[in-house]
Amino acid sequence: MGFKGKPPGSGSGEMSRRTQALRPAIALTPPEAAKARSLRRRGEEPELIAARFAVPVEEVEKALVQMRSPRPETTRGTLNVTLAAHRFIMAERRGDEPIWQTMDRLVDELIRLRAEAGPAQAPAAPRRRRALGGADDLLPGLLPEISAG
Known about the structure:
Blueprint: H1 17-22, H2 30-41, H3 46-53, H4 57-65, H5 83-92, H6 99-117
Helix pairs in contact: 2-3, 3-4
């Protein structure tokens, strides 16, 4: 099967020339800078890397600053909820408050209320789900009542 659409250009994935021009000059060649980053990922200290390449530590640090590193924790996540729960969350928003702040506030409130209520009770027996088409009773009052007519 061939490539559909316009294939990527010859320079795709490379750093733009403008970005390269804005970066400070480094006393290491690009292959040496790549090797310095590789050594740092393996845990070697910048001082030892500088000694290996016979350059000042500042030059190695310039190369290491450009190194990509994984973020220690994500700042956002996806919240998969029912439509009724979504309506509830949207109704609880304060003005243009971001949804993540609304969720944080609601979870904080839940934790505080549970702490005030005292020790947790034994969990209730699991409920059977209603047949498809039945009212959503997980968040009562958020869906219009279905008339039995």
